[in-house]
Amino acid sequence: MSADHPFAPQTAHHQGHGGWQPVRMHAPHGRLYVREAQGRHTRLRWACVWATQLVYYGLPWMRWNGRPAVLFDLAARKFTLFGLVLLPQDFVYLAGLLALCAGLLFLASAVGGRVWCAFACPHTVYTGIFMWIENRIEGGRTARMRLDARPLSPSSVAKKLAKHGAWLLLGAWTGITLVGYFTPITALLDELVALDTGPWESLWICLYGGLAYLNAGWMREQFCKYICAYARFQSVMFDRDTFVIGYDRRRGEPRGLRSKRRDPGAARQGDCVDCTICVQVCPTGIDIRNGFQYECIDCAACIDACDAVMDKLGMARGLIGYSTATAVECGWPMQRARRRILRPRVLGYAVILAAGLALYIAALASRPTLRLDVIPDRTGARPAGDGMIENAYRLQVMNMDERPRRVLVTVTGVDATVPKGEYDLDAASSRIIPLRVRAREAALKPGSTRILFTLDALDGTRTRITEQSVFVVSQGG
Questions:
Q1: What is the CATH T-level fold of the domain 370-473, as seen in this structure?
Q2: Which segment of 330-339, 349-358, 430-439, 461-470 scores lowest on mean pLDDT?
Q3: What is the residue extent of each domain of the chain?
């Protein structure tokens, strides 16, 4: 990229340093005092924050047919998702769901860059909420800087305690909500009130709540810069038609302060007044005017800040805005750049994602609600008297429906005698049925004979499941 490209990084030469400068893997700096931004992108981001948190904090409280709508019951080894019961054997469905989410991330990144980071990433979301609390208690950017600069006083200590107390309460509730996805939330709250939570529940409440407090309250941009792997490999999902945030260097340079009545053309100045508000509102502390940087999370706070300054100066918006490398190089307007959204790469992602979603829905729709596993007993064959020989089996019958069911078990393949074959299954449960199958030894050859276990639902749905096994006759009688 050329040096005057709006997305070109600012080199050491541009910064007034001669020669090559080493790249540091970690650049320590003081605490960031982020200024609150106002504007359409900020409103959209907050709408996404509240929407995602409504889902996160609300799902554990939702009920479906008298049970939690979403519950990952590790003790019972079953996952419940709005009436859909998934057992360990259904891991492929969870893997498929994760693959679809990954495909959606690739599609969104190819179109809009780091939109996930800006609008839905849990770290970004909680950092924004924690900063909102900080602003409400300690004041805006300037007030916080003054508060930290002066010696401690009863007023400043009270503000600090109130802020960290609110952070800890939010972190604790976040941890409780996470555990509420694995333990029914109402039962969990009863245990908390009685101080009777289990060790694993207590551990995860403290661990996740503590991480929320540490990451969103203290680490903030350091997590995005040095821990999050997505920031490192994001460029492989971008191309020259991906929308990213950039500074229009041709329009903005040379930058400098001026009044509204001064003619910028006569002074040979660009539109940038070097107010640095775009830097002050950036949650990662970068200067977008230095070109595209991996630390940028595309939150668009700098766009809102710059647009507000341009409005005050009576100049056109868009000095900082969304654009693509191709549009900037060719001088295209935004309308033409948007036509490149439906390009081959994006269409390919969309087709693959749509096909995967269709296959996933079809697989879920055809998924049986009964499952049968037959496990022969290790003891093998044994005499049962009257010329009969007996084999023992353990039948694991899984009911993945949200209603109780009654089933009939039959055995074919040998002239067998089977005990009572009708069994009741609880809703969304698994049951082990010990079964002894007897057959006349004289009618069978030594060795193993294939037999078929059939499971029929007695609820009018005509559901039938079959599973093969073997009936063993000892060699030599």
A1: Immunoglobulin-like (2.60.40)
A2: 330-339
A3: 40-86+121-219, 370-473
